[in-house]
Write a structure and sequence with these properties.
- By secondary structure, the chain is of the alpha+beta class.
- The protein folds into 2 domains: 4-138, Immunoglobulins (Immunoglobulin-like, Sandwich), CATH 2.60.40.10; 144-312, Glucose Permease (Domain IIA), CATH 2.70.70.
- Helices cover 17% and strands 39% of the residues.
- The strands form 4 sheets. Strands 10, 13, 14, 15, 16, 17, 18, 19, 20 and 21 form a 10-stranded antiparallel sheet that branches. A 4-stranded antiparallel sheet has the order 1-3-6-5, with no helix packed on it. The chain has a 4-stranded mixed sheet with strand order 2-8-7-4, with helices on one face.
- It starts with a helix and ends in a 7-residue tail after the last helix.
- The relative contact order is 0.15.
Length: 319
């Protein structure tokens, strides 16, 4: 495979030799022609600084994420992220004044294996391969959880009406994230409590296997226990839903979200800026719940990642 350093140099050379000499005005002065040619060469070189690329890792476990950071971009540059880790959504890129950020999230549906990654640079009407890497995804075991739930709770919180409300109000929130990094440093565990259900767990409810997997981590705690914002962000959703009960969603910017479900009381309001460690709610057992706990989920847009992975991360794009 061609090295990324070579690919970056080829981007520069390809654009350098694309000088449209035919557009130079006709002149009898060789000196003037040389001057104009040199001016065009300098302009082209100035406009074709090859972007630099950093990636946090080349191997991650299911539930983790790959971080890509690009610098030295021109104002009209566009990046295309190509891989076959998932194909149901486009891999979004966030642009900020010559720098760009992209995340490749790995949920529990990701099949372990090796995946080729190619990043293409679109510049001045042309497309060039900028970065190539083989990514490895490792698997893990998931527990099977058996729940016995009162049938009246099942009927009221897992009904067609409850799911319709969930998809209408909750899911669209995850599609749009602010083009600004709100978080700083590590994400903290948002409540003091013990884990009762792990990320990715398979479930049998009243003896029947569910079609879904557990998309977060449950922390058992007494009703009224404070729940804190895992990191700085903006409240994108704060409302009671039939399925998830009193629910808060925090947008941490650049595609990262955290979710706080089944709460008792909500103290943060939609649109409010919150800081890491701020009390935003209390533990409850609202919605589809068998007892007081916090269901804590983390995601990159629609892809639910392992909350422990985001809490292990130091918050830096290169780690």
């Amino acid at each position: 495979m061609m090295s990324n350093a070579v690919l970056s140099k080829l981007v520069v050379l390809a654009l350098f030799f694309n000088i449209q000499s035919a557009e130079l005005p006709q002149t009898d002065s060789k000196a003037e022609l040389n001057r104009q040619l040199m001016a065009n060469v300098q302009k082209t070189v100035a406009e074709t600084i090859a972007p630099t690329v950093t990636i946090n890792a080349t191997s991650q476990q299911e539930g983790g994420f790959f971080l890509l950071r690009f610098t030295n971009l021109l104002a009209d540059d566009k990046l295309v992220i190509e891989h076959n880790i998932f194909s149901d959504t486009e891999n979004k890129v966030y642009y900020q004044n010559g720098t760009a950020y992209a995340v490749i999230p790995l949920d529990y549906h990701t099949i372990p294996g090796k995946y080729p990654l190619t990043v293409k640079l679109q510049r001045m009407g042309k497309s060039f391969p900028l970065f190539q890497q083989t990514l490895s995804v490792t698997g893990r075991e998931y527990e099977m959880q058996h729940l016995q739930v009162n049938q009246s709770t099942v009927d009221s919180t897992r009904s067609d009406e409850a799911y319709a409300e969930y998809h209408k109000k909750f899911m669209p929130v995850r599609l749009k994230s602010d083009n600004q990094q709100y978080w700083e440093g590590r994400f903290i565990q948002p409540v003091e409590g013990h884990q009762t259900t792990d990320y990715g767990a398979k479930r049998k409810v009243n003896g029947s296997l569910t079609s879904y997997r557990h998309n977060g981590v449950d922390f058992g705690a007494a009703t009224g226990t404070p729940i804190y914002a895992s990191n700085h962000g903006k409240v994108a959703f704060a409302e009671k839903l039939k399925l998830t009960g009193n629910t808060i969603v925090i947008d941490h910017g650049l595609g990262f979200f955290t979710y706080y479900l089944h709460c008792d009381q909500l103290f943060a309001k939609q649109g409010e800026r919150v800081i890491k460690g701020q009390k935003i709610a209390t533990v409850g057992t609202t919605g589809f719940s068998t007892g007081p706990h916090l269901h804590f989920t983390a995601s990159y847009h629609l892809k639910n990642i392992n909350p422990y992975k985001i809490m292990e991360w130091n918050g830096d794009w290169q780690n």
